[in-house]
Amino acid sequence: MIIFAILNNKNNLYYPENHHTIILYPGIEKYEILQVALEQLIIELRTLKEKGLKDHQGREWKIELYFSSDWKFLAICLGLNAANSKYFCPWCEISKEQQGDLSLEWKINKTINNIHQNYKCYRGHIRPAIFDMIPLQNWVPDELHIMLRITDVLWRLVIDELKSKNTWGNKARDVIIEEMKRINVRFHFWLEVGSSTWQYTSLMGQDKLIVLQHFNLSKLFPHSRAIQIRNLWDNFYLLHKAMKDFNTDAKMFSNDTHAWLHQFLNSDFYQASDITPYIHVLVYHIPEMIKIHNHFGLAAFSCSAVEKKNHQQVSYFFKKTTKDGGGGKNGKGRKSAILDILEHENRMLYFYNCNEIESIHLPKRLQIQTE
Ligand SMILES: [Zn+2]
User: Which superkingdom does the taxonomy of this entry point to (predicted)?
Assistant: First the structure.
C-alpha cells in the first residue's frame, strides 16, 4: 500500500483517515512489479514537483516531496540491495565491516542527483532509484520500524545469551511465559513440525514497548547482569521516546545515541556484528534527520498510522485473506476488495469536500388511489 499525507497537517497525521491510499495491490514487494505499479504515480510526482499544484480557487501550491517506509520498501525504491549486504545504508557509504569502528563518524553523504545520473557511483546500488525526484535527506527513517526491529534485536540477544550459557530450557521458557503474564502480554513458545528450534510470538508494537519497559530480567539473569541489560533497554526506550519528541535537541540526541552504542558494545556480550542497519541509522542518521526536519518533527513521518490503516482495511474489507486481492476462493465474479477499499476512500473524500447529499431532495411519496 502506498499512501500520501499532507505533512503540514502535522497535528492530525496520527489518524489513519488523513493518509490517503493511492496504490494498493496484493502482490509481493519487488522492484520489477513496483516499477510497473508506480509508473503513473512517478509521472504525477515529477509534475507536482516541477509545476506545483493549482487548486480549484486558483491558488498555486509549491510541493516538496518526502518519503517514509520500512527498510525493505525503502531499499527497493532506492534501487539498493538488501539490508544484510555489505553496503546497506541508504544515506552513507559505510560497509558492514566498519560498523564496529566507533572512531568513524557517519553523515548523509549520498545525493539523489548522483544516484539519478549514475546509480553505480555508490556501492550497493544495483538499480536506478524509483523515486529519483525526492532528495535523499527527505527519505526519512520511520520511528515505528526502528523501535520494532531494534527491540527484536535486544530480545534475540537475550535469548542467544541464555542459549550460550546453556540455561535455555523448559525452565527459562516457563519463566518468560510467567513474566509475560505478569505484564499482561500474550506470549507463547512452540515447536514447528520437524524443527527443534523454539518459535515465539511476534509481538505487536504496543506489547514490545511494555516488554522493553517492564520485563523483569532478573528472573532470567544474575542480578548484576540483569541490571546491565535493563539499563541498556531503558536507555533505548528513552531514545525512542526522544526521537518522537518535537522538542528533542539534535546535538544532545546525537550524544545520547553514541553513548548508547558504546554501552551496547561494552555489555560484555554484544559485538560489532550484532549492530544492525536500524541501529546504525538510529545512532548516526536520526540525529541529522531531527535537525533537518525540525519543522515537522520525526513523528510526522511515522508509519504507525499507515500500519493502523492497513489493519483497518484488512479487517473491514478482506475477511481473513489478502493473498488474492480479497475475492476469496469462492468469490469468483465478486468485486475485488481492493476496488471496494479505493471506492470507499474516494467517496469519503468526495463527501468531505461536498455536502451534496444534503441538497438532494428526498423523493416524495405519492399515493394513488383508485376507486
Ligand atoms: Zn549510514
Answer: Eukaryota
